[in-house]
Design a protein that fits this description.
With about 140 residues, the chain is mainly α. The chain has helices at about 1-15, 20-30, 35-55, 60-75, 80-110, 120-125, 130-140.
Length: about 140
């Protein structure tokens, strides 16, 4: 009887009781504060599970999982997924290189920071003036 009562409490927490089962459960717990507390605990756990299940997955999660399972069972990912994975790694690597080069340029020219603009300091490029452009095109006079 104890197992059947627990099953009824679980169904009640999920809202799946028939009217006959609801009557049977009410009869069983009306004189027992312990069973009433247990039913309340089942209800709280059920509410927490429902609440966390709604927030735990991004949209179209099931579709993406099924596509990935299908692709792997057929022998590999499709071209778009493979390119996406490679692109993410390249972007991260490029960002690290850019940050590293910029940091090096700033630290190596730190003493000259009053004379240089932020772009000159970060990217180690000369200032863009007509004289500099002509000197680079024609050569130094």
């Amino acid at each position: 009887m104890e197992e059947k009562l627990k099953n009824l409490m679980q169904k009640a927490a999920l809202g799946e009781l028939s009217p006959d089962e609801r009557l049977l459960l009410n009869e069983a717990i009306k004189d027992s504060p312990e069973l009433q507390a247990e039913l309340t605990a089942f209800g709280k756990v059920s509410a927490l599970v429902k609440e966390s299940a709604a927030d735990s997955f991004e949209p179209f999660f099931a579709t993406r999982v099924l596509q990935r399972v299908k692709a792997e069972s057929e022998g590999g990912l499709d071209l778009a997924a493979a390119l996406g994975a490679v692109f993410r790694k390249v972007v991260i690597g490029a960002a690290v290189v850019i940050i590293g080069v910029t940091s090096y340029n700033v630290t190596s020219q730190w003493d000259e920071r009053e004379e240089l603009s932020a772009v000159e300091l970060a990217f180690n490029v000369p200032s863009l003036t007509i004289d500099n452009a002509l000197n680079n095109i024609v050569g130094t006079p």
